[in-house]
Design goal:
This protein is mainly alpha-helical. The chain contains 8 helices and 4 strands; from the N terminus they run H-H-H-E-E-E-H-H-E-H-H-H. It has one domain. Helix 2 packs across helix 4 and helix 4 crosses helix 5.
Amino acid sequence: MKRLFWILFFAATAAGMALPFLPPCSWPWWDSTWIAFFFVAVYYDLAAAAGLSSARFSSGVVVIAMAVLLGLSGLTGWPCGPLRFTAHAGLQIGGTLPLVLPLLAFSLLTASGHAAASAFPGAGRVALALATAAGFLLSIVNGLGFFAADRIWWKWNPVQDPNALARGAFGLVFLGATAFALAFAYPADSRLRRSRWSPGLIAWLAANALFLAANFAMLIR
């Protein structure tokens, strides 16, 4: 079953490579499908490596923390800056919290942890948390064009705040610090340290390749 969801995720990612070259918001079904495959694949992988109870704890902590962060940002513009989520972000609670985006945050953070453990097998827990946060933040920055311009999950600065860029920069720093703290919610996984090419590492590379394709498409338009 775990292998099936990885295959489905990679197939959806490969199909998504066409999206940056299509009109914005094409294939509206793709977003939730891709995130669902990603979430289930990394969750199954985490459960297989660390046990079901650890996977439940880690996913619960990360999803709830990211849901609070995104919900506050949608309501108040803090800490991630003045953004408003659109209907393209999927089902929402109270019109401010998209249900699938915390799942994507968990998936990217988990894949970043896999990538860090595979790349730095001899690193200590703090160093791995730093590498995980760096990989997560790199993915977010790399994916901003895809999220906001291609899929239009949110509108940036609809209130015309003159300090929007400074608040956005603060939001990225806050996201990085949050990712570093949340990395300690995961159990240590010695299996990843023995494997240079874990599925999570390949998923991290695939997702960032998709985001890079979107950035390239914006440059040539």
